[in-house]
Amino acid sequence: MPPLEKYLERADELVQEVYNAYGAMGNDASLTPEFSALVDKAHEYRTLSRVADNHREHNVLTEQKAADVQAARQTFAEAYKSLWEKYEMPSSAELRCRPFSQSSGQTADSEG
């Protein structure tokens, strides 16, 4: 299984994959609590990241805001990795850290 650092490196891409999978499911009320929690963590990380980018652009980013982004990124990556490991994704997909296809919501290994 990939180390946490791989998930951290690709956190922004993985957030988008979570959003894509969520959208493909039609925002269904039958989502698992684990996936719903992952969506919440993805949203928190993306929101804090965008706020920090805006503050950085205007040269008003504080150390606390930067630390908040890193903490949210870490929390999201840990949750994503945990869900990944729980459902034991195929090893070829593990290498890419991509449990969801961007187009179909299938495992990355099933892309071909």
Q: What is the structural class? A: mainly alpha
- Return the domain count: 1
Q: What ranges have pLDDT less than 50 throughout 5 or more consecutive residues? A: 90-98, 100-112
Query: How helix-rich are the residues, as a percent range?
Result: 55-70%
**N-to-C CA distance:** 20 Å
Q: Element order, helices and strands?
A: HHHHH
- Overall shape: globular
Strand content: under 5%
Q: What about the largest sheet?
A: none
Q: Average pLDDT value?
A: 81
Number of E strands:
0
Oligomer: single chain
Number of helices: 5
What Rg, in angstroms, do the CA atoms define? 15 Å
Task: Tell me what you see in this structure.
By secondary structure, this protein is an all-alpha fold. The protein contains 5 helices and no strands. It has one domain. Helices cover 65% and strands 0% of the residues. α2 (11-24) crosses α3 and α3 (33-57) runs antiparallel to α4 (63-86). The radius of gyration is 15 Å and the shape is globular.
